[in-house]
Amino acid sequence: MVSSALKQLPAPPLENLTSHFILGELVDHLHLLQPEFLHVDIPKLKSHLWAIRDHNVDPVFHLRGFLQVFQETSHFKEAFGELDDGMKAQIKAFVEGADKEVVVAAGNEGKGELPVSPQGKHHFRELIERIEEKVEDVLHLGHHGKGEVNGVSGANGHAKVEGVVAEGYPKIYEDKGETKTMEVHSNTEFENWGQTVKNTPKWTFVPKTILGLSNLVKWAKAHDFRVRCGGYRHSWSDTFCEEKQILVSLLNLYEVTKIPDPLSIKPEYIDPDNELKVIQLAAPEGVTARAGESEKALCRVGVSVTNEQFRRWAVANDKWSLPVDVILVEVTFGGVNGPICHGAGHAHKTVNDHIRAIEYIDANGVHQTISDPVKLAAAAGCFGLLGIVTHITFALDPMSYAIMKPVKPDICLAIPPLSRADIPIALRKAYTDGDFEAARRDFVNRAENDYYSEWFWFTYSQQAWVNTWNTTPIKTSDVKEYPSDFDTWCQWVQGWLGGVITTSPLFNAFPGHWQSTLLSTMGMLNLPPTEFLDFSQDSNKTEVINCALPNALHFRRGIQNMRVRDMEFQIPIPGKVDEHGVEKADWSVVQRAWWDVINLVYSEPDSPMRLTLELRIMGGSDLIMAPQRGNKFGTASIEILSVPDADSDGVWKSFLQKVADLWMGLDYKINGKPLNIRPHWAKEWEGITLRGLPAREYLKEVAYKDAIVEFKAVLAEIGKEQGWGLGDIQRRFGNEMWDWIVYDVGVKRV
Question: Among 623, 318, 354, which residue's Cα sits nearest to residue 473?
Fold first, then answer.
């Protein structure tokens, strides 16, 4: 809620709604908040914002300064207190002005290494706990209650004794000798990362073996429980397990619920007994390379493998890589696979399109494999409805090396508008028709031809960030680790500090346009290139970064540390016949969708979109239920992001509806029909209407009407061969949302 000290300030006129002006407003009026926030260093905050406004930019200097601004607040101290000792030492050294070598060394008592992760520490602590708890179990076997593990209260929900299960808890064996039982939690509350889904599963299991999962499904069948999986819980839609049913957590509960997550900056402990954390240059028995893929390698990956684990493996081996991936590293392969996630690049389909085999536990508890391309069209993107996926075999490309050349052009020239009138008055500049046409050709060239293509606009910024690049198979001497260890650490701290700031009382006291501008400033500040020339950033200025492909795909680390709200749609690129009679992609639909949102942002006084508008260009998909399927000329994957405070202020949901109306209303057609525009399954779409229908109803009866029939037919064919029916998997692996959308079961909801 906006502070009463600021309510007297008039709203800035539309022509002044730019980061430059609003930064000046912040500098001029932040002192009004000093009496309310005595422990915030308001003068220092003003000095840094003024320096940034004057283009005196140094990301490391400003990161240190922002930490100093908030370090005496109780909110900061509480968040700081939750860090491990190594991270505390590093941040303390950094804040005090130490250089990067000292900062890195501070994490491990001067040894120059990053400290052991909490996960690793916890593993060793478990060894001691197991000994202690064997005695405790004997003494208190009957003691169990809400939120406990195997009936024994334990630190961070990890107290577990192999082979010993308290009374009333299911005993699911993970080995043939029946000496090890699966970790199980009772009535532990579930909340997704985006804080849009909450429930309390009856049982939460943390498996390590295929046999364990097989035994779990057999037990669930015998006791009529439904089973759904979760990784880092990054989906915003209600795709998770139901109340009082079974959740299978692909990672330990400490790891998936801990924010900040140290995964990207610390060694990750890989339990050698965990079959779901393996990366093998091999394929399941009977699975061979497809025709035309002799240059690729088949790689079997466990669903609990994180993107960070795979990135490190790929870079270290320097031979093979996934050609596409999501930016996030704090996510499991199962989490990427389930809702059909994607990367970027016009030539690339979804991540799931690179799957060559799926291994899963079926409704009878049998470990099965699917590799037939026709059946994979359903099985490789099935939202967990087929069963519990254990391993995914991908076709990897030979390692290549990205040549990144990010730029920050004026927003008017990044993706130029269809008309000058589309530019809000605050962003208008005196560009010629020739300038706009050159910018349009540049945009089209990047969209059509670059290996990776992505555009960002942070709210009220005069510039965009354009991150499109190509690759080379040749590893030159210029290839470097990117980001460097220190830069990775800085990115992690930026994410952590962003999470601290956006949940702080000071930030909550800001009006929406102040919040947007502070985040916009921090976002653009930390993205390359960061040099300013002659008090205006040269749009041709760039920083060439040569690095291994996985590092370019995952160019930002620590994203997990700052929660956001996110709605994303997949817009098909229509075709248009040119003057030579050749049908080509009509990229004007992207220009329209992009500028429609920018104009909407300028019409909203409370600034609901307080982070960024993001666009990635990609191809289509062969998966039956992929929202990119059938997109002959490619897909515009476009999304809006904000902070939780926008929802708390009551302005986010109505903004989602307005954006959805704009995008669904794009007046373009393919074969005489409106564009089949569909939301990303994992993002925010529930609760809105699409072309006049509740979202669930629209997806079921319009957008996927034929696809759902085809999807179920393929699943039924798989079941016929492997010994189960659609009713079996619906009862075992569905939930309320999927029951209604796919199986015609339950009550219609929005």
Answer: 318
